[in-house]
Amino acid sequence: CIHALFEQQVERTPEADAVVFGSEKLTYRQLNQRANQLAHYLRARGVGPEVLVGLCLERSPELIVGILGILKAGGAYVPLDPGYPQKRLDMIVADTGIRLMLTQPELAMRFTGVEPVLPGDTAACPQDNPGLKGNPGSLAYVIFTSGSTGRPKGVMIEQRALVNFVLAAQQVVQLDHSARLLSVTTISFDIFALELFLPLLCGAGMILASRETAMDGHALARLLTRSRATHLQATPTTWQMLVDVDWRPSDAFTGLCGGELLPRELAQAMAQRCTTLWNWYGPTEATVWATVLEVSARDYAAGNIGKPLSNYRVFILDGADNPVPIGVVGELAIGGDSLARGYFNQPDLTAARFSELGTLGRIYRTGDRARWRQDGQIEFLGRADEQLKVRGFRIEPGDIEACLLQHPDVSAAVVRVVGAAENRRLAAYIIARNGLSKETLGPLRDHVKQYLPDYMCPTSYTLLDRFPLTPNGKVDRQALPDPDGSRLDLNDSYVAPQTPLQQQLTEIWADVLGVDKVGIRDDFFELGGHSLLVLRLIARMEPVMGEQLSLLDMFQNPSIEAITRRDANREDTLPEAVTAIRATGSLAPFFAIGSHPRYTEVARRLDPDQPFYRLDVYALQTRQLLGGEGLLQSVEAIAAQLVNAILSIQPRGPYYLGGGCEGSFVALEVARTLQQRGEEVAQLVLWITPAPGFRRGVMFGKPALTRVLHQLRYQMVPELIADLTLRTLREAIRHARIEYRIFRAMDLYMPAGRFEGPIDLVRTA
User: In what order do the strands lie in the sheet with 139-145?
Assistant: First the structure.
């Protein structure tokens, strides 16, 4: 079993770094001990072989602990991406019948009928290895992919298949204890299994990139450099982002690329940056990858996917299931030791795609067209059916079409891919009823977003009276017209550009997005924009706007009106997370730490000659998160950042400081830090705060969860009822995640020394 191999590696390199996420690190010993605690906890709740446990966690060391803990308990994990729409997650939970869910407090309220298991629940459990349960034939995980019936289908991967794949991949990549592999893949993508287990079985380090960093080429390039990563596995889309920002490693670097066709031009650019470059191919049903090719920039031909991995068998079959000669096109089938058990609770579908084929043994029919080359390698030639690949994601058009047909105003629907390779996107074609028109498509688009993840949502909707048909009566997808390029955000009326700058930007946006017309209030992401297009858009906008833009700028200001207003109103002189409530005055400034909205009222009641600055802990953490640095984990780390901000405004004392609620302990630590630097702190005011350590174990326990749930229930749910976008939901969840991290830091805070001076403590009556 895969976790038994991990335990052997723990014995060999117990003190080596196993997982790194921002400032957090876990050695192999620490990771094993925490996974053991979780395993003991889960076993006490009935987890064992063939028992499925849900896993809904943001990228963090807790995610790695969760996977290992479930496997050590003998169970199998079901990854649930927090970024997916709730209704799609509910489908997976209902189909699997899971009753335990490893999650975070800010995500727990999204699931009903399952028992949440939170990080703090296992603290009292033993740290020793729990002993092996299960065997190589036991389930390791069930991962859900797009299904043609409108519901995702679960692929069941056994321990033996996972072990064989990881060891076969290690034969190719040959990681050692000095390697550092940067992980950018979501847990709902099967590639994550390689990013996790390949380094952990050989003593290497796994570096976790945050979700936001993985979407931003500039941030990802910085993290690759700062972390001294030696290996990266990513889709061509992510590699293209790095090429677009001209990332270049300073030392020997190994690139792993898979998930979709690797274009020759991109392969050449990557080969210039990577000492070694591997191109992988394989479906989820064959446990991640099945073939591999070492890419040579000179000889690489697009579509070449190399040869099978160890203990994999690859066949190219004709319509009668006979192997075809070299050069003849057929369907690619895979056999060997890493095939999936089948599809969860779908025996008919399993029988249709997996079969015993005489002397060939058990095979999986991929639906991919391929042929053997003269050199014994395989050339991939696309799909034999209608399945799609968009930016590395496998998509069944029927999944999207079934969702569209659930809407009462849709009579028939067809989905296909349009656009060039670097801008492939989904287009929906609708035959309407009940008066559905181009002007009323907004509710239909919102309906789709409730059920499908972002990468499966069409970016254009075209109304037709009828679909073109082939001679045998099927829809002729190739004969469907190109999308008309009109505006796609139809909830708001078109607003024309008001200034020459806005006119230039609308033309750039329309060109990048491939549409005819863009209004200044149109949302870039609602128009079909994604992370790769953002980088291209930014590169086009920067010369026009005369400044450098970031991915964060676009996410916070996704319309032309917002981005130009931000340009006009920004305060370039202030550090991050600092707001000048009153920037002028002859008195020494007062620095209020925290995010309380009443700070403006406090400033108004002070002397008019008193400068007043707010240092927002939430804003600082948000910038850390979206900038790819990871959340600051302690009060000391937060205070260190704010001290630098204060010094940039007021280089020398005396300093006047205050903090309330989540800013109170930070203010105390800022005051201590300034004193340690030899500066005078003339006043320290704290609002509504306990003494550090007085409530240890309380803020980090149930009250923290209660407060987060309170926030989600009373702030986020009304926004959803008001039919706002999924991005609003994500922002609310992100805010709750930051709040939970701040509470945890406060709960664990104990000053390393004294603050020498009086403290004014303000409490409500």
Answer: 115-117, 100-103, 52-56, 76-79, 139-145, 153-158, 342-343
Residue 640's Cβ-count burial label (10 Å; 0-12, 13-18, 19+) is: middle
**At a CB cut-off of 8 Å and minimum separation 6, what does 344 contact?**
95, 96, 142, 153, 154, 155, 156
Confidence of residue 735 (pLDDT cuts 50, 70, 90): low
Least confident of 371-385, 671-685, 720-734: 720-734
For residues 673 and 565, the model is more confident at 673
Strand partners, 343: 155
- Is residue 264 within 8 A of residue 297, CB to CB? The reply is no
Q: Give all strands (DSSP E) within 45-152, no chain letters.
A: 52-56, 76-79, 100-103, 115-117, 139-145
Report the b/e string of 292-304 with b at 16+ CB within 10 A: bbebeeeebeebb
Question: pLDDT tens across 623-677, in order?
Answer: 665 555 566 677 887 888 788 888 877 877 788 898 887 678 888 888 988 888 8
Residue appearing with tokens 């590639």: 191
d(CA 758, CA 756): 7
Peptide bond into 690 cis (omega under 30): no
Contact criterion met (CB below 8 Å) for 99 and 53: no
CA distance 56 to 93: 11
Strand pairing class (425-432; 410-418): antiparallel
Q: d(Cα 534, Cα 518) in Å, to the nearest integer?
A: 15
CA 381 – CA 388 distance, rounded (Å):
13
Instruction: Average the pLDDT over 604-610 and give the result.
Output: 78
Q: What is the rounded radius of gyration, in angstroms, for the C-alpha atoms of the chain?
A: 28
Residue 141 exposure: Cα atoms within 13 Å on the Cβ side: 29
Q: Are 67 and 151 in contact (CB under 8 A)?
A: no
Q: For residues 300 and 295, what is the distance between their CA atoms, to the nearest angstrom?
A: 6
Q: Which two tokens stand for residue 41?
A: 């906890």
- Alpha-carbon span 571 to 619, nearest angstrom: 15
Rounded Cα distance between 288 and 165, Å, is: 8
Using alpha carbons, list the distances in angstroms from residue 129 to 13, 17, 32, 72, 133. 16, 19, 8, 8, 11
% the chain with pLDDT above 90: 35
d(CA 418, CA 477): 11
Range list of H helices, 252-320:
264-273
- List of residues 6+ apart from 230 with CB closer than 8 A: 178, 179, 180, 181, 251, 252, 253, 254
Burial of 748 (0-12, 13-18, 19+ CB in 10 A): middle
Q: What pTM does this model have?
A: 0.66
pLDDT digits (tens, 9 = 90+) for 504-543: 888 888 888 877 788 888 878 767 676 667 777 887 887 7
Exposed/middle/buried for 347, CB within 10 Å: 0-12, 13-18, 19+?
A: exposed
Angle between helices 61-72 and 28-44 (to 10 degrees): 50
Distance from the Cα of residue 662 to its chain's centroid: 27
Written as one letter, the residue type at 497 is: P
Q: Is residue 708 pLDDT above 60, yes or no?
A: no
Extract the tokens encoding 689. Answer: 């705060």
Mean pLDDT along residues 347-361: 90
Q: C-alpha 724: how far from its chain's center?
A: 21
Answer left, alpha or beta for residue 417, where phi above 0 means left and psi between -120 and 50 means alpha. beta
* Residue in this structure with the two tokens 């998160």, named with its chain if needed: 625
